[in-house]
Write a structure and sequence with these properties.
Distance between the termini of chain B: 35 Å
Order of helices and strands of chain A: HEEEHEHEHEEH
Structural class of chain B: mainly alpha
Largest sheet of chain A: 5 strands, mixed
CATH topology of chain B: Helicase, Ruva Protein, domain 3
Helix content of chain B: 55-70%
Strand content of chain B: under 5%
Shape of chain B: rod-shaped
Oligomer: heterodimer
Distance between the termini of chain A: 57 Å
Number of domains of chain B: 1
CATH class of the largest domain in chain A: Alpha Beta
CATH superfamily of chain B: Cytochrome C biogenesis protein
CATH superfamily of the largest domain in chain A: Glutaredoxin
Helix content of chain A: 25-40%
Radius of gyration of chain A: 21 Å
Number of helices of chain A: 5
Number of strands of chain B: 0
Radius of gyration of chain B: 31 Å
Number of strands of chain A: 7
CATH class of chain B: Mainly Alpha
Amino acid sequence: MRRRLLLLGTVVVAVLAVVAVLATGLGRDPSATASPLVGRAAPDFTLGGIDGPAVTLSKLRGQVVLVNFWASWCTECHDEQAALDQTWQRYRDSGMVLLGVDFQDTSDGAKDYKHQSGLTYPVVEDKDSKTALAYGIRGIPETFVIDRTGRIVDRIIGRVDAERLAGAVEPLLKGGTQ
Amino acid sequence: MRRGWSAGGLVVVIAAIAAAATLGLIAVRGHNQPESRAQQVQQIASGLHCPICKDLSVADSPAPLAQQMRQQIDQQLAAGRSPDQIRAGFVAAYGDSVLMSPPRHGLGSTAYYLPLAVVLGGALVVLLLLRRWRQPSTVEGPEPDDRAPLTSAQRQALRRAVERLREEEA
């Protein structure tokens, strides 16, 4: 009798463990994939501008940097562009740089979109996707928040809004860390 | 009385042998070394998960990002980086999830050691069962489940049967 109870108990515990593992995995938001880069130094890059000078990330050290991966064919990128522009206009004189990184796109497509949409922040081209691969890009848009020391403090997958960006940028501009 | 192998015991033993053989085969095949750089690229790419695909390796995916990953692997091999260093570079950017097989450390190591533990545990159970089955039985009697205490009706029936036997002998 005691043996049967022990066996039954073991089976119940095993089944509950499997259910718990499945429930944890299935309940996870796939877009909330943690990046191993958060908390580490942002991978450096030098990329040519689509209609301006080349930009080297390490030369922006001392400023808060938002790196936004996007493409002209990406509709979700279009949807977030107003928020990015608003953030750029609001904080550009306070020590923040917003950099658009054009990903898997044509130069003409990116230029046309920039001019038609009135996008005002600098945009560089990641022609061979090396930078995107170094940042572990899984899809666009993705935005990385980099503090004044060059460390990645946040990664935002998908469309950003101005409030979220302000919440990420303001403490860094005030000298705090996240 | 000695008992032979039961069907259940045989199934467990065969399953344990099959699992051990599979693990051995995987271990042996894992040591195949590619010859050319293209083969090396293919081998490294087949061990990496295409980040923008569902269940496709970088080797199998036609996605532009996977193509660029293959190019980057090729360039890094040409620059003298080892396959482990190249994999580590992708893991640094994407995390362990970029690997097609779980890593051999942390929680991922359970995928490698759990089957071994199950096989060893199964073998232990089989050994214990075999030892128990092969022990000579001292009493030829009812199976353990039949050893429940008799009810009063059964006791009375037994008493009557014994009395009948004694009367017949007398």
